[in-house]
Each structure stands twice: as structure tokens, then as C-alpha cells.
Design the sequence.
């Protein structure tokens, strides 16, 4: 199996922040699937959704997964919330799930300093009711694909990245 950490979880659970903190502390590179897609398409995720549609974006995620499988090693990969659905997820590295309840995630997003922009850039979070439904639909699927599950509710970033490092050797 490839020596990458593949960080999955629901929108707003803190994948990007965790990935950056981990990369800094443990001296490795972090790449983010949404950033990779945005740079390849030269367009923001929300605009890809609006102009080309969700299925086009999902296809970009699969192309991104194929590229990671072919070309990425020894890296920390933070993924968009729907990336767990790519066909080759398990070939990309050790899959780590950041887990928290919907209410905790919603509270984290809506009380952030830049709450407006955090919600605006996520088209699937535009309507909280729909986002909650999506959370419920995905909850079990995330657990099923994860090699390691990290409960992040009310834990410090320091302890979260320490726990990942302890549980996954890459
Ligand atoms: C999505 C999550 C987003 C982004 C896109 C779709 C999803 O990433 O990939 O808006 O399907 O859950 P984050 O999880 O970083 O918000």
C-alpha cells in the first residue's frame, strides 16, 4: 500500500486545518484534493458546481485520485467531503476519518471568524437541512472505508495530530 495519509470526513470537520498542522509538525508535504482540482480547472469548487454541475466535479475527483495513485508518495492528503467515493480510495494510502457529530460541525463552521466565507465556498452546505441529511447518508459509509477513526470533538489540534501520528505510520 502507498505511504500516504488520506484524510476524509464531512465538510467543515477540520480536514484542511488538521492537514496543515500535521505537515508542519511532522515535516511532510500536504496536498488537498479540492486545491488540486481548483488549480487544474482554474476555477473555484463552488463555480465548478454552479457552471459544470456536481457530476463533472465528481469526475474531477476521480481523475485526481488516479493522479495521486500514480504519482504521490509519503504525503498527507486532505480530501473533499465526497472524495471517499472514488473507486481506488484504498489504494491511495491509509484512510483516516475525522469524526464528529453534525451539530458540532455546524457549530464549528457557523461560529468561525470567517463563517460566511466558510459556508459560501461549500455549495452542499448552502441549506443546513440538506447538509444534515447528507451527513446522515454518509455517516456509515465514512466509517466503512476508514482504516483509522479519530474522534475530534472538543480535542485540541495538538492532540488530534499526535493521535494520527501514533496510529498511522507513513
Ligand atoms: C464536498 C465537500 C467540499 C468540496 C465540495 C463537495 C462534499 O470539500 O469538495 O464542495 O461532497 O462533501 P470540504 O469537505 O473540504 O468542504
Sequence:
Amino acid at each position: 500500500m502507498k505511504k500516504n495519509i488520506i484524510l476524509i470526513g464531512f465538510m467543515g470537520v477540520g480536514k484542511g486545518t488538521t492537514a496543515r498542522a500535521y505537515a508542519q509538525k511532522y515535516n511532510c508535504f500536504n496536498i488537498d484534493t479540492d486545491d488540486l482540482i481548483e488549480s487544474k480547472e482554474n476555477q473555484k469548487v463552488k463555480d465548478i458546481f454552479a457552471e459544470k454541475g456536481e457530476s463533472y466535479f465528481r469526475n474531477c475527483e476521480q481523475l485526481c485520485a488516479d493522479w495521486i495513485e500514480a504519482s504521490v508518495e509519503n504525503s498527507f492528503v486532505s480530501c473533499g467531503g465526497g472524495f471517499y467515493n472514488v473507486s481506488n480510495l484504498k489504494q491511495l494510502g491509509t484512510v483516516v476519518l475525522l469524526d464528529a457529530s453534525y451539530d458540532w460541525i455546524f457549530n464549528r463552521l457557523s461560529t468561525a471568524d470567517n463563517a460566511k466565507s466558510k459556508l459560501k465556498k461549500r455549495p452542499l452546505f448552502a441549506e443546513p437541512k440538506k447538509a444534515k441529511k447528507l451527513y446522515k447518508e454518509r455517516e456509515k459509509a465514512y466509517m466503512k472505508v476508514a482504516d483509522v477513526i479519530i474522534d475530534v470533538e472538543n480535542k485540541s489540534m495538538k492532540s488530534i495530530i499526535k493521535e494520527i501520528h501514533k496510529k498511522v505510520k507513513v
Summary: Residues 6 and 77 are 5 Å apart (CA to CA).
